[in-house]
Automatic annotation (TrEMBL):
It comes from Rhizomicrobium electricum. Pathway: Glycan biosynthesis; glycogen biosynthesis. This is Glycogen synthase. The gene is glgA_2. CDD domains: GT5_Glycogen_synthase_DULL1-like (cd03791). InterPro entries: Glyco_trans_1, GS/SS, Starch_synth_cat_dom. It catalyses: [(1->4)-alpha-D-glucosyl](n) + ADP-alpha-D-glucose = [(1->4)-alpha-D-glucosyl](n+1) + ADP + H(+). The keyword Transferase applies. Synthesizes alpha-1,4-glucan chains using ADP-glucose. Residues 293-447 form the Glycosyl transferase family domain. It comes from the Bacteria. Belongs to the glycosyltransferase 1 family. Bacterial/plant glycogen synthase subfamily. ADP-alpha-D-glucose binds at residue 17. Residues 6-237 form the Starch synthase catalytic domain. Its EC number is 2.4.1.21.
């Protein structure tokens, strides 16, 4: 029997994307389809989403949804079955989904914008809007986390799951916002949505959902600790066997070096020599001169979480060791400035493009030799999976999903022919410099390097396994629906 799930998320590829969350949300429906799970994605009605929406059918109209008029419109967009929350007052804005482009800061009414999304999700599942035939609601990150809370406090029997893509973004808002969310007063407590003196959207979802997932088994363990739990580690530990780690997959149709239109030359594991043409294209795009050492690439937000401050401090060393760097990213202004300064100092050795370009990110994976991922924490990470798929060797911190998806090129793994990348412990100048030096040394041995590329490219990082795990989890909790809802600590 087919199971219907409502995915509640703030972004989904190819409609709107700021990071890996969009890739996961965009790929999950197709990953679940083979297991007889039909996913409808509930999205905010951003300008881009409204333009892409086709065959729209109005399911419901709100006169006052957390202070705004709104409609729920069902249709298709970007190859996804969607329901769009069309609320122009909330979403018809220029710029990205979360930030005011004029100030660079969060929209001050984000609590209303994504509170409304959660309320609409619960209404759909409960039959107050639309046909009410969803068997389960799946909220993503803090933006979708109020959906489980509304369901639970409404007394609904519809089960829910919340996925933590990054616990570092808890969705905290001032305490005065609570009275406008339409939740009962009892919800504002330490055993409810209260979080460090305010309202915690993610905490609300973690407390009320029937199950919690996060995007790798190692991260599921890490967030139980004070170092990684962001003040929510006690709640995570208390949920015990309701917490699951499922590694993200990637869309192997979109990310396929044998057919990728963004590459100068397509190739596969048997024709790795063809990558040279893409390498030359990377050199041209980033103004890099010829060299015998590897081209390291970075495709990342430029933040301290991603370890970019450490990398910025050792660009002189990277060049001195014979490496070159091609960086694509944006973020902290000081880090942007530091990398631009490094590129000016080391012309022909370091090239920097500030911003994000999807096609260029594909070319980097298809032409650079290695990708640097010195993250202080990384729930799953997708860039290392793209790198493995494209023969762009990941050099990464041993944390979260990076630890779960990369086999370190230690001597035993290299000799056994199973190594796929380089892992280092602790994000420090010394550890990253050592990892870069180790990578350059391995690069000099063409036989070993080719083995690393081939092993990574032959591994299966598609959604097949992860899709089955999600489908099994959906069915487990959908089947137990009313029983799970009755087991409440509220």
């Amino acid at each position: 029997m087919s199971l219907r799930a409502l995915s509640v998320v703030s972004e989904a590829y190819p409609l709107v994307k700021t990071g890996g969350l969009a890739d996961v949300a965009g790929a999950l429906p197709a990953a679940l389809k083979p297991y007889d799970v039909a996913v409808t994605t509930l999205l905010p009605g951003y300008n881009k989403v409204m333009k892409a929406l086709s065959r729209g059918e109005v399911l419901h109209q709100y006169r006052d949804l957390l202070g705004a008029e709104a409609r729920l419109i069902a249709g298709t967009a970007g190859g996804l079955d969607v329901i769009v929350l069309d609320a122009p007052e909330f979403y018809a804005r220029d710029g990205g989904p979360y930030l005011d482009p004029t100030t660079g800061k969060d929209w001050p009414d984000n609590w209303m914008r994504y509170g409304a999304l959660g309320r609409a999700a619960a209404d759909l599942a409960e039959g107050k809007a639309g046909d009410g035939s969803f068997d389960l609601v799946h909220g993503h990150d803090w933006q979708g986390a109020l959906a489980p809370a509304y369901l639970r406090y409404d007394g609904s029997s519809v089960p829910s799951i919340i996925t933590i893509h990054n616990i570092a973004f808890p969705g905290w808002f001032a305490p005065e916002t609570f009275s406008h969310l339409g939740l009962p007063q009892r919800a504002y407590s330490i055993e409810g949505v209260e979080y460090f003196g305010g309202v915690g959207f993610l905490k609300a979802g973690l407390h009320t959902a029937d199950a919690i997932t996060t995007v790798s088994p190692t991260y599921a363990e890490e967030i139980r600790t004070k170092e990684f739990g962001m003040g929510l580690e006690g709640l995570i530990r208390a949920r015990g066997d309701r917490v699951f780690g499922i590694v993200n997959g990637i869309d192997t149709n979109v990310w396929n070096p044998a057919s990728d239109p963004n590459l100068v030359q397509q190739y596969d594991a048997r024709t790795l020599h063809l990558r040279r043409q893409n390498r030359q294209a990377v050199e041209k795009a980033f103004g890099l001169s010829d060299g015998f050492g590897p081209i390291f690439c970075v495709i990342s937000r430029l933040t301290t979480q991603k370890g970019m401050d450490v990398l910025a401090s050792l660009t002189d060393d990277l060049v001195a060791m014979g490496g070159r760097l091609a960086l694509l990213g944006s973020g902290d202004t000081k880090l942007e400035t530091a990398f631009i300064a490094a590129s000016n100092k080391h012309r022909g050795k370091i090239g920097v493009t500030i911003g994000y370009d999807e096609a260029l990110s594909h070319l980097l994976q298809g032409g650079a030799d290695a990708i640097l991922i010195p993250s202080r924490f990384e729930p799953c990470g997708l860039t290392q999976l793209y790198g493995l798929r494209y023969g762009c060797i990941p050099v990464a911190a041993n944390t979260g999903g990076l630890a779960d998806t990369i086999i370190d090129a230690n001597e035993a793994a290299v000799n056994a022919g199973v190594a796929t990348g380089f892992l280092f412990h602790g994000v420090t100048r010394e550890s990253l410099t050592g990892a870069i030096a180790h990578t350059i040394a391995r690069y000099a041995n063409r036989k070993v390097w080719k083995s690393l590329q081939e092993q990574g490219m032959r591994a299966d990082y598609s959604w097949a396994r992860s899709g089955r795990q999600y489908a099994d989890l959906y069915r487990r909790f959908a089947k137990a629906g009313s029983t799970q809802a009755a087991v409440s600590t509220i």
